[in-house]
Design goal:
By secondary structure, the chain is an alpha/beta fold. It is built from 14 helices and 10 strands.
């Protein structure tokens, strides 16, 4: 059995996917790399097949009809045979030295007394045009270099949360928890790092800058203008997170630290949805913002009150045009500080 499976979702990724795959190949025979060609119309499929010819014991190529990022991740999980699983987007890459440390750590923990469910490491924003790169690290929130549970988790500050880039899950956990991401929908990575959490018992944090998250292409899904254009998909994911939180509430609330983290993450996502709807400056989207908060209110009054009357909820619901202007200015400050979008 392979130690670590990588899924690389690709859609018309011919221009940059080789940098990604080549960085993963440095793991040698301990890893499998599943290139998921999600109905590409460029040379992606041919490049994937060429890799399989060169590295048949390491690389698989899966060609499928276009279903979006979530569909490609689902396919990666279905095909994964490694003990652990990670998604690496085709325009991102990993650094070799931390990569070796990740593999050594997984190797040492595999088959141990406790079953590792999730390994966390840092990621670096490789933002176009910036010489200094923001690092998302967790050393003040998580114990370093030891197995721990939710009871050992400390305080995550606002803007600090575990993204798809941060985590490696145990493959069997993903398959058994029933995670299925929606198709033809962007921003499903938020569901990927949200829904499995109640199944996660044992974690390990390695304080290394492993994943390089490329950000800044004009057509990238996290570009603000693109996000506003796809706001209905952001809202869809937001509502699915609300649904999940309500559905699993009795299970989640039994663990206070888990509940606090998931509540904070939902708070962040709802804030992002709200500010994008405000930023669009259209009556239609302001109505969608109101409808989103009403959706939460109808789903769970207690959860609504937690979010609506918290710091971020208050800031996103200031009355009138002046209030919306204050909300936007606050968002701009956060964006500069946390370096997102």
């Amino acid at each position: 059995m392979k130690l670590l499976s990588f899924a690389v979702p690709c859609y018309n990724s011919a221009a940059y996917m080789e940098k990604c795959v080549d960085s993963l190949l440095k793991g040698g025979e301990d890893v499998e790399i599943i290139i998921v060609d999600d109905g590409s119309t460029d040379a992606t499929a041919a490049i994937a097949d060429e890799y399989v010819k060169k590295y048949p014991s390491v690389i698989k190529a899966v060609h499928k009809e276009n279903g979006g990022h979530g569909s490609a991740v689902n396919t990666g999980i279905d095909y994964a045979e490694g003990l652990f699983f990670k998604v690496v987007d085709s325009d991102d890459w990993v650094k070799e030295e931390p990569y070796m440390q990740i593999l050594d750590t997984l190797r040492n923990l595999a088959g141990g007394e406790k079953t590792l469910d999730m390994l966390i490491s840092n990621f670096v924003y490789e933002k176009v045009g910036e010489k200094r790169h923001k690092v998302m690290r967790y050393k003040h929130a998580l114990p370093i270099g030891e197995m721990f549970g939710w009871e050992d988790v400390k305080h995550f500050h606002k803007g600090q949360y575990m993204l798809m880039h941060s985590v490696i899950f145990r493959t069997k956990l993903l398959k058994e928890c029933g995670l299925r991401l929606p198709e033809h929908t962007f921003y499903v990575d938020n569901l990927y790092v949200f829904e499995p959490l109640p199944s996660v018992k044992n974690m390990y944090y390695l304080d290394v800058n492993f994943y390089r998250y490329y950000i800044g292409r004009a057509d990238q899904s996290v570009n603000e203008d693109v996000m506003i254009g796809r706001i209905d998909q952001q809202i869809k994911v937001n509502k699915l997170m609300i649904d999940y939180m309500v559905e699993k509430k009795n299970q989640i609330i039994q663990n206070k630290k888990l509940y606090r983290y998931m509540l904070s993450y939902l708070d962040i996502i709802t804030t992002i949805s709200s500010i994008l709807l405000i930023r669009s400056e259209t009556r239609e989207n302001l109505d969608k913002k109101k409808e989103l908060w009403n959706y939460l209110k109808k789903k769970d009054w207690f959860l609504y009150r937690k979010l609506r009357y918290g710091l971020l909820g208050r800031c996103m619901n200031l009355p009138g045009k002046g209030g919306r202007k204050i909300s936007v200015e606050g968002y701009k400050i956060c964006r500069r500080f946390y370096n997102f979008n």
